[in-house]
Amino acid sequence: IIVVFITFCNLQIFAQEKKEKEIKLNEVIVTATRTEKNLKDVPITVQVVTAEDIRKSQATDFQSFLETEFSGINFTYDGGMPNINMMGFGGKYVLFLLDGERMAGETFDNIDYDRINLNNIERIEIIKGASSSLYGSNALGGVINIITKNAKKPFEAGLEYQYNTSKNHKTHLSLGTKRKWGSVLLSSFYNFREPYVLEDKEPLQTYENGRLVLSTKSKLHIAGFTNYGVSPKLTFNISPKIDLTLTPNYYFSERNAGTENSIKVLDRYYNYTTSLKSNIQLSEDKKLSVSGAFDRYQKFNFYRLLNEEEKTYQNELWRGAAQYNQSLWGKHSLVAGAEVLSDDLLSFRFNNTGSEAHQDAQSYTVFTQQEWAFSSVFTLVTGVRMDYHSLFKEFFTYRLSGLLKVDDFSFRGGFSTGFRSPTLKELYTNWFHPWGGGFQIMGNKNLKPEKSNNITFSVDYNRAKVNITAMTQLSVVKDKIAYQWSRATDTIQYVNNSGNTKIISSEISATYRPVKGLRFKGSYAYYHTNQQRSENRPHTVTWKGEYVPSSDVKYVPNVIVSGKYVSATTIYETSNNTEYYTYYEPYAIWRLQLSSRLPYHLTLNAGIDNLFDYVTKTSSFYSSISPGRTYFVGVKWEI
């Protein structure tokens, strides 16, 4: 009897895990092919995280979620400002989309990550590898599409507050309703953090032609902030075949650098966006989508004593698009579309007088992609895109990808081309940077677009208790844009590297569920570039162990222990026949999280960030900015 009972329980657990696996693999995604497809049937390597994954992680913000959840995504910091690296590519090669629309504004080639409300995300779809054939410039390294929530119930509401001993407060409020005519969801947040200072324990060690040079110990001021945002999302069922989605957004941020100058001047950021999209079901197998979007991101100097603002930066994106989807012969599909994009940049860094100036560029695009399902186990994708840029004329990109299923294995591979047009900043900057005694940053109007050839291969192994995914990509980039530093003239200028830059990136991740409610995850990533100067730490490892009790269980806490290790790196620079290199130490950050369901729709969460109290010995562009071990506690109410 005991043997029969144990066998029955194991079969029940196996059936439940198999069901959960099928639910995950049947997740509908849209980014990889611009059409709704089940994850298991997409011939392009893509990762998906859902709102449930985000809820379980108890991450404090969007950036930390990306960094702790994926081994292949890392951040470096310049004065505390984050700089993403994915698959060996920096921020200017990773295209961020919010509900499919490009995001305006950037700092150090990155978007403002504080704009993104983690509590308002339904899922995140990540394409790792060149996707220019569908998304054009800036998608040379990959695409991260953040898809926001819709209301799902006649009435829903949520309220959350979290406090971290780093003097960090986070709040979130949402209200929504779903009716026959459509839905409305209002999501808002307010966050505050005090600035803090990292003091060097050791001087930075730089080698000049092999000779050790010790820098003076310094302090790094990490900015504090006050930011808030409001994001209403309205959907309307115009008819059984036509829907309409309106998404306006407002975001404000005030940042305090924590320096003496901050007593007089603060940085203020404003963001206004509006997008409108309509889906029209022309017939059972034909659909037309029409969309338009506007995104304005502004920066001001706020003079506290005068109570006045001075605009120093404004980026505006206008985009209009139409896309046609058709199912062919019941198993193939066709996507075709056209886009118009206008990019306008106002900056005081376009001339050496310090006065504001405008620069702009437009691009016009047509694209098509076909998916050929030759059988239940083999699918092929072909695609081509033509972008006409007002400054660089036309450019074509192509894709050929395939998916082969063999029992529990899924093999994906393909070839794609990519490109990236020089940004307006790279073309026209002419600015004296006052930091460190001062140096000049110069754009280059003679820059050429970057072009790449990319070969990608991945394999997935899926069983009820085990999932293993391995991926590798070789990218050969021609005319890669970098900056050239001249110590003699204290000048940085954007240039095209001569020859080809080869970037090899490999990742492997595994998930194991020995029993229901218990899961272990681990991943490893490796990157290599043949260019001496690289911002990558070549090896990263993430790990996570989590115990999640059944959703109907109260008081028994979820327990998650997670961490990330980044390897040491050596950064090389060459100027005037002199070689400089600097060594940066490896480090690991651990995290402990607890959360427990309580009566009255309440959830209590608490934990420890940086469990083993790691603090960098020398603060720099490539160091961690963690202040050390901190504790957090929060409460959430939602119905």
Describe the structure in brief.
By secondary structure, the protein is mainly beta.
Mean pLDDT score, rounded? Answer: 89
Helix-and-strand structural type: mainly beta
Portion of residues in beta strands equals over 45%
- Globular, elongated, flat, extended or rod-shaped: what is the shape? globular
Number of helices: 5
| Cα radius of gyration in angstroms | 25 Å
Residues in helices, as a percent range = under 10%
Please give the largest β-sheet.
22 strands, antiparallel, barrel
Task: Give the helices and strands, then pairings.
Blueprint: H1 2-25, E1 28-29, E2 37-38, E3 46-50, H2 51-57, H3 62-69, E4 73-78, E5 81-86, E6 89-90, E7 94-98, E8 101-102, E9 121-128, H4 132-135, E10 142-148, E11 156-164, E12 168-179, E13 182-193, E14 196-199, E15 205-208, E16 211-214, E17 219-222, E18 224-239, E19 242-256, E20 265-283, E21 286-303, E22 308-328, E23 332-347, E24 357-373, E25 378-389, E26 393-406, E27 409-420, H5 424-428, E28 430-433, E29 439-442, E30 450-462, E31 466-478, E32 481-486, E33 491-496, E34 500-515, E35 518-529, E36 539-547, E37 558-566, E38 569-575, E39 578-584, E40 587-598, E41 602-609, E42 630-638
Parallel strand pairs: 7-10, 29-33
Antiparallel strand pairs: 1-2, 3-9, 4-5, 5-6, 7-8, 9-10, 11-12, 11-42, 12-13, 13-18, 14-17, 15-16, 15-39, 18-19, 19-20, 20-21, 21-22, 22-23, 23-24, 24-25, 25-26, 26-27, 27-30, 28-29, 30-31, 31-34, 32-33, 34-35, 35-36, 36-37, 37-40, 38-39, 40-41, 41-42
